[in-house]
Amino acid sequence: MAVSKCTRLSGPLIQELLDSVDNFLFDCDGVIWRGEQAIPGAPEVTNLLKKNGKRVFFVTNNSTKTREMYAEKMAKLGFLAKTEEVFGTAYCSAVYLKHIAKLDGKVYIIGGNALSKELQKVGIQTVGAGPDPVFGGQSDWANVPLDPEVKAVVVGFDEHFSYMKLSKALKYLDNPDCLFVGTNTDSRLPLEGGRAVPGTGCLVRAVETAAQRKAQIIGKPSHFMFDCVVSEYGIDPARTVMVGDRLDTDILLGSNCGLKTLLTLTGVCHLDEATAHQESHCPERTGMVPDYYVETIADLLPALQG
User: Fold this and answer.
1) What is the rounded CA–CA span in Å between residue 45 and residue 26?
2) Of 22, 29, 174, 227, which is the active-site residue?
């Protein structure tokens, strides 16, 4: 399809795109749902895509749910989704440590129970989940006892993040052989009404600063998220479209991996941000320019129902 970047997807272009791809990768929050409510028309879109022979996957940077938890949420909201079609950063972190890093040891996690469960499902023991309040003074923090079997530190979203956890992570990462993994670098989690709370990226950066090391990032826009899907399903990048609401994660992932990209305006980013990247002619920003955009993925419904 010889169309310029950042083109509104409408009319005959929708069918042209549908004919050109076999696989759809959807981000979740801001794309198919907001909080606990499905975006109107989103379940019908993903279900009809499957009915029409397309393969549909859900790729999210959120590390606070297991694959099973996501599948349960999707079922409640009307999405016909299998557990194996969900790729979250908790699951993909477990894949990385087990099959790529071939970790032999425990993981100290700054994260929640879902991250711990995904690691445990592949046979990796974890320590560190849950509250860990600070105690004592600087000498106590510097000499905090460590588990000698810990061979990696993984940082995900953790509402119990504390100075004590930061101190322990620093101590573990003083060992250059200790692996350092971050689930994602999203700095803010957007809420309704323009509000936001700090995201996982804030915690990853704090640990990176303390440890004076860079984490291996698993989530979008890292190529590894797409590699996980490819390794399990063998999908062709040229026949795949990434659908998302964030330019710096979803759309950049698609660009990094040679996918077609579709921005939906129901989430974080606005069209003027995409056009600003396009008009900048800056190589570092062109990867954040989508091929297409829609107001909502429900815009695909007429073509799918026809």
Assistant:
1) 11
2) 29
Mean pLDDT by 10 residues, the chain (306 residues): 81 96 96 92 98 98 96 97 98 98 98 97 97 92 93 97 96 98 90 80 98 98 97 97 96 97 94 92 91 98 92
Structure tokens at 131: 């509250």
Cβ neighbours of residue 305 closer than 8 Å, sequence gap 6 or more: 48
- Gyration radius of the chain over CA positions: 20
Predicted local distance difference test score (pLDDT) of residue 1: 46
Q: Which residue has the tokens 């009307």?
A: 78
Is residue 248 flagged as an active site residue?
Answer: no
State the Cα–Cα distance between residues 148 and 34, nearest whole angstrom: 42
Residue from 27, 132, 158, 299 carrying the catalytic annotation: 27
- Catalytic: 140? no
Q: Decide if 161 contacts 111 (C-beta within 8 A).
A: no
Question: What is the predicted pLDDT for the residue at 248?
Answer: 95
pLDDT score for 306: 76
